[in-house]
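Technical appendix A lists one of the benchmark inputs used to test multi-chain prediction within the project. The record comprises two sequence entries:
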Amino acid sequence: MPTVDLEYPKQPYSKVNRYDSRASYALETIHGIVNTCPIVHVSFTVPNSPFPTILPMIGQMGSFARPSADTGDVLELYLHGYVSSRIINMSRSANGESSGQEEGLPICVAASHVDGLVLALTPNSHSYNYRSAVLFGHATLVTDVDEKLYAMELITNGVVRDRYRHTRVPPNAAEMQSTSVLRVRISAGSAKVRSGMPNDDRADKEDEALLDRVWTGVVPMHYTMGEPLPGPYNRLEEAPKYIKEFRDDFNRDSKDVATEAATKPMKAAKAKHDD
Amino acid sequence: MPTVDLEYPKQPYSKVNRYDSRASYALETIHGIVNTCPIVHVSFTVPNSPFPTILPMIGQMGSFARPSADTGDVLELYLHGYVSSRIINMSRSANGESSGQEEGLPICVAASHVDGLVLALTPNSHSYNYRSAVLFGHATLVTDVDEKLYAMELITNGVVRDRYRHTRVPPNAAEMQSTSVLRVRISAGSAKVRSGMPNDDRADKEDEALLDRVWTGVVPMHYTMGEPLPGPYNRLEEAPKYIKEFRDDFNRDSKDVATEAATKPMKAAKAKHDD
């Protein structure tokens, strides 16, 4: 844990304009959201296409230089997943040599948790409880073997705690060759969090007939992991302890976070509407 | 249901290059994924910013012209959520008048479900079971009052089935004024689906010591909705039947989809690696 609470600089492209009472620029908050999302969404622009594109990928924040760094430290984002050859090729060629610009492919990464459905008296005041983070940075291909191994372990254990060392490692030469990992150097980021119960306009909250008729509150929502289902060539009689404990912890934490999000008040409830 | 299975045209920017055996261009598949996601991620480019940006938003596919249209029909995407003034202003001004280009702001929309963790013998063969969809299109502001009301009902009932008519409706003038809805005319789209058990390389599947040591299989993963928690000004003794039934159906369906994704084989299992 760093001795001060670090924040990302507010940039014109990263500043939260709407409901800024819900915004945070704290590295700890933003990195925590990213590292607990099973997938992140990565956006980049494509030459000769009228549209930007989005890829779902797996991402974890880490530091190859200081592997013991905490969530609130300065970290880089490692990306892996269904990496189209396009993003890999673009990251490889975006080395900035020709232009003198910052090295790498400019990307935006979003990580979002839905924590509950907020049911109010009017459609406009309906909302979600959620935690969302956005990061902006430059992606480059990881070419150093040791850094690639670090990132592969980080990402595998980000999906299932402690999984990496329980599999056949290290990856062989063919696997190292065929696997691409991107490292994103972060320029800025922000988080937005909504928690708590519905909040309607005063006129509606004073409408007796309406209050007698409409149920208001929160339906908590969270990811659940089911019973591990053995595959066709599995030989172990049951899933090992580290998988079971990971699953149990995940399910308990997920449920707790969603329930707490419903019942705890917003830190700064300046926002009036929830549309 | 249309009498033929409609597909989106394959465009250079929408074609799935990697694992194309997992790809689909069917409207029914793509729209089904979008309409069951609690949130979608919307990407667009921002003038004078080095990075594209992503907003989490609420989206539902529908047809104002033919409200009875099915999931597999030609539909438009209606977006609502934490709409930054930036995307609204850009959509308002992107009317194509000056340039002769297609009307609206070019955006990319991603909708992704995680259905399970696929645990293989090697880190490289690990994967998720998932269903993801990407749509490309042009966003414009909905200005017609009737269409806006149609979209508000569509989106509200997309979050909780049948919720709209159980709240205080229609929205009043101030609410209509303050609410922005975007309509996206879709140019192309694609879906990518992975299901089934892990599939390792032959050399690993013939490694007896490895098979005796590593658990392989799928941990199904899905969203769950908890018990509805009443808010501070709720007066109803318990959540009404339509909310309870919606929650029960959602939880049963979510669990079934994740379990089926784990146990059913891929339609076309051409892909060898799962990295």
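Chain A has one domain: 20-263. Chain A touches chain B through 112 residues (CB under 8 Å). Comparable benchmark entries are summarised in Table A2.
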